[in-house]
Amino acid sequence: MSESPRVALLLDPLTLSLDPSFNLRVKWGNHAPALAQELLGRGYTVRGFGALPGLIPRSSEVKFEGRRASAWWGKLRTYAPDILVAYDALSGAAFRGARMARKLDATLVLVEGALPGGGTWVERVLARMGEKFFGPYVRHTARAVVAFDEVARRQALTEGFAPEIVRVVPHGVDTQTFRPGLTSPLVARQRIRGRILLHVGRLSKGCGVEDLISAFGRTLAQRSDWNLVLCGEGPGQPEMRAMADRLGISARVHWMDFPRREELPGLIGASSIFATPARDDLVLGRQISRAMACGLPVLVSDLPRLRGLVIHEQTGLLVEPGNVEAWTEAIRRVASSPVARDRWAMNGRKKAETELSWQAVADGFEAVFAEACGHALSGSGETQMEQGRPTEA
User: Fold this and answer.
1) How many domains are contained in the chain?
2) Which domain holds residue 30?
3) What pTM did the predictor assign?
């Protein structure tokens, strides 16, 4: 490896184009841009491929000239990275990364996020095609797979990657943007007075928000100093509003659209408790990390994707999903103990800084790089391709 390691971050343009806004942040948040920024600050030379221009921070020294470097593939070969980081283990980006890793004897590291529900139908089709046409070739070439959480780790194993090369490195949170002590004009605009139990997420039938409303009605809604704020949109909102009306707690339940990105930290910071009452692993848990970074105790469903973010009894409580009685007891307990809330808030902020910040994520990737680059690449050149593996389109 060169003295200043050259890292290429590979994204699949076809995958990105599935979103109408062509915005990577819709899928994996700002993972690739934030990781690139951290690696740049550590002396790496970084370049993104397959993303829209300007999306991923890059080194200024990288220039491509000539006809050969005009295409995506030609630019990547000219760049000659030491490490290729390809998002989505069975994507076209992973295949191209594997091809280039063999040509350059470079290290291929895959990132697996495990889209909730397997993603859209188009994304599921692409994944099946990836497995059929180049899955074995990618598996044979990859030296490491970074999974965002336990669900992603299991998916990587299901996709056939060896357990010993799969490492969990959580998705990061910006602990400078999300920090304790923030407040928001949104609260005053909604005329909310008192403490806030906050939920941020899609409001769909069966997502668990019904459990939260019911548990709130049994507990904090009986007090004048607490409010439930449900921030998000979805087809389940009319039915949820009707539920709050039936329970006679509509005056204590406030509804907000999902705020602008720059308004979200203040809204979280102005709250007292954060709740994610998911019933399944369709929820990624990004808002949980942000709430802990803002110094909030969290109440989170005890699900495989989410439990790794929370230390039970130290940063909040893990609650049985779909169990209204369990949620009622959890809310009652955290609301009645300000000392515990303060302790959990402090521990949550510490966990965010030491384990979930982008600095911690970059530490994790550096450890993966060091381990992966110590492994010899299995096979080389085009031999696997010649034995019936896919050829470049």
Assistant:
1) 2
2) 6-172+358-386
3) 0.87
